[in-house]
Amino acid sequence: MRFCRFDDNRLGLIRAGLVHDITEILDHLPALGWPAPPGDHFFNHLDRLAPLFEAAADGKPGLDPAGLALLSPVANPGKIIAAPVNYAKHLDESRKDRQINFGNEIKTIYDYGLFLKATSSLIGPSQPVIADWPDRRIDHEVELALVIGKPGFRIAEEQALDHVAGYMIGLDMTIRGTEDRSYRKSLDSFSVLGPHFVSADEIPDPHRLELKLSVNGEPRQQANTAQLILDCRALIAYASKAYTLWPGDVIMTGTPEGVGPVEPGDFIHAAIEQIGEMQVQIAG
Ligand code: MN
After folding, report:
1. How far is the CA of 26 from the centre of ligand 1 (A)?
2. CA–CA distance, 225 with 228 (Å, rounded to integer)
């Protein structure tokens, strides 16, 4: 199952590459009180809503996604968890860069743990990344992003993939420098998810996916999720050792080598095998 959010918070089921508007499904969501329960309201109820998708899409025109303003498939994640230096070759390039530019050696993911990106940084592919710190270098990072579907705390690696609802392409945008990651990677628009959600049953092995990113047509990053240091299972175990994972929580699994700068006017093209591709504009 593939779905997207688009335009004015519409919900679309994707069949054969075309988007069928199933926004009416959202009428089945229970009313939200205050305080809202943990998790994203839609993903908390996805198991109950998903069986209604196909019938709602039947008879609806198929829209070309190229003509739609695609939003983040997850609207209200409770947290966006991200993995630092989770590909060996990116660890090498980060070490070299930090020694040259910042004079301190980079550690490994086992030293750092994971980090959190502010949920207010989240956008979809139709919205521009705002790169308006002209004195600082802003880098792209393409990453496999997963969405939690079933809550859990201290999840064992063996059961970890049972907690995944599905996958998306993620961009973990970054200002380079010495500040804490949660500061440098949480600017408004610095977390991009898209182009649509792909349910876990469509991706039986998330550790065999080619991912790539280009800027203005110039190839920058190309790798395979087989090269992850901590794979999706290990990341879920690592994250849930610290905090309960709720439906709608997002884990960005880390970026491979080839990170590089972007500037206003640039276009990022990102693709992950079996998921799709998306283009994102950089604005000033
Ligand atoms: Mn990253």
Report:
1. 32
2. 5
